[in-house]
């Protein structure tokens, strides 16, 4: 059985940034396991620009952004295996994986970084009535078909869901000569970034219908059309509001789910809100020496934040390997509690004695709030109270906590993050 100090599952933006960071922090024995035929993950099919403004201070396409990290990994001589599927991880950090060259093999790791990314929610999870005709795709599948396979899925398109991939595909399909008739969204607000609504829908005159969903699908062999209806506050279709749209393609952009079958299998404790692992200030899970970062932890809106988070995970994994200490002794955990409009926080616990000088706590809200405050309470005392014109579920929010600040509250047990 081969042994490595750090094994990283996933060779996308999170896995690459974690590997580069771990190497720069003094660990040489690193292996990336990637199930696809190339490194770069989902970025390889994201040919639009808008990546890298935070990380590289310039605007890049997805493949260019991935290329920067692939080059860094190559220069640092980081080992990786492609076309390799990880089948199982045991709690003692033994991985079982397989590929064509090595067959089924096992690897013993001192530390593991989970960076598997996320997958799209499927149509099956939506229960749309009707047949199963050709022409229904997830937005990500359509993106791969258009951008990598050179194949246009259809000519008349309706998009259900206003997640960022759906919005970007509305523009992409328009560029390729298809007619995007409407983007429908079940919620009363969009799930995507404001800039994507402006640049991908408004600029091309594509209507966005909020509080609408698909209630019927017409067509047996190939999709012929769909029926949209308005929904009430409980998400139920309102009779009499049905509208029929003829189309040959329906794209579903109805949410992303962190890819955590492996994490579940090894006993990692999950957050029911994010469907990702619960982590501490070091991005370490409840299993010592197992770290998580990127979209496997919680779904990000900017890849720059994925890289930033993954770099922290790589550094912390390197420290763990070199010191052999995980859930370190000394200090105590402060629990972060999300209430009043805040859906979750990452991390969920912080030990001030073991954190860096400052830590970024990221979270999402559950609704659109205008003229509000993002507040953090240390016990009963309000310490952060930041005015915001608008916060929305499509945009990730953050607050920064400093070690110096937390050390002043010696007996602090709980920090509450809320919208006021």
Descriptive notes:
The protein has helices spanning 13-24, 62-75, 139-147, 164-175, 194-201, 261-266, 303-323, 403-407, and strands at residues 2-9, 30-33, 49-51, 60-61, 79-81, 85-89, 94-99, 103-114, 118-120, 136-138, 156-160, 179-185, 208-210, 212-218, 225-230, 243-246, 249-252, 256-258, 270-271, 276-277, 290-292, 334-338, 342-346, 349-350, 358-365, 369-378, 381-391, 397-402, 414-419. With 420 residues, the protein is an alpha/beta fold. The chain folds into three domains: 1-120 and 256-327, FAD/NAD(P)-binding domain, CATH 3.50.50; 122-254, FAD/NAD(P)-binding domain; 330-420, no CATH class. The strands form eight sheets. Strands 1, 2, 5, 6, 7, 8 and 21 form a seven-stranded mixed beta sheet that branches. A hairpin with a 2-residue loop joins β26 and β27 (381-391). The radius of gyration is 22 Å and the shape is globular. The model has no long low-confidence stretch (mean pLDDT 93).
């Amino acid at each position: 059985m081969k042994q490595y100090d750090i094994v990283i599952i996933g060779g996308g933006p999170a896995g690459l940034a974690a590997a580069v960071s771990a190497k720069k922090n003094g660990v040489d024995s690193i292996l990336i396991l990637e199930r696809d035929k190339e490194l770069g993950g989902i970025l390889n099919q994201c040919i639009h620009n808008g990546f890298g403004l935070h990380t590289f201070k310039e605007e890049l396409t997805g493949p260019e952004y991935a290329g920067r990290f692939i080059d860094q990994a190559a220069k640092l001589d980081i080992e990786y295996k492609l076309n390799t599927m990880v089948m199982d991880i045991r709690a003692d950090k033994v991985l079982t994986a397989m590929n064509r060259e090595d067959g089924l093999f096992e690897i013993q790791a001192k530390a593991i970084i989970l960076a598997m990314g996320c997958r799209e929610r499927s149509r099956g999870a939506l229960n749309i009535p009707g047949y199963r005709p050709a022409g229904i795709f997830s937005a990500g599948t359509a993106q791969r078909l258009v951008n990598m396979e050179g194949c246009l899925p259809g000519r008349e398109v309706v998009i259900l869901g206003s997640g960022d991939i759906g919005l970007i595909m509305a523009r992409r399909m328009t560029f390729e000569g298809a007619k995007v008739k409407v983007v429908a969204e079940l919620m009363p607000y969009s799930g995507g970034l404001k800039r994507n609504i402006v640049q991908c829908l408004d600029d091309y005159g594509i209507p966005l219908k909020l509080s609408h969903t698909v209630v019927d699908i017409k067509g047996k062999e190939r999709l012929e059309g769909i029926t949209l209806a308005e929904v009430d506050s409980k998400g139920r279709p309102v009779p009499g509001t049905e509208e029929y749209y003829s189309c040959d393609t329906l794209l579903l952009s109805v949410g992303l789910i962190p890819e955590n079958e492996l994490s579940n299998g090894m006993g990692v404790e999950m957050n029911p809100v994010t469907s990702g692992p619960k982590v501490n200030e070091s991005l370490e899970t409840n299993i010592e020496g197992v770290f998580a970062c990127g979209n496997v932890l919680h779904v990000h809106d900017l890849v720059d934040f994925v890289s930033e988070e993954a770099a922290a995970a790589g550094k912390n994994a390197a420290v763990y390997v070199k010191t052999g200490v995980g859930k370190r002794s000394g200090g105590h955990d402060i629990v972060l509690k999300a209430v009043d409009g805040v859906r979750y926080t990452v991390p969920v616990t912080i030990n001030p004695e073991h954190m860096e000088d400052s830590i970024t706590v990221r979270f999402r809200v559950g609704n659109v709030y205008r003229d509000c405050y993002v507040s953090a309470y240390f016990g009963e005392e309000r310490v952060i109270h930041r005015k915001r014109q608008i916060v929305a579920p499509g945009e990730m929010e953050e607050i920064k906590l400093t070690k110096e600040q937390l050390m002043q509250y010696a007996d602090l047990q709980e920090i509450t993050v809320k919208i006021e």
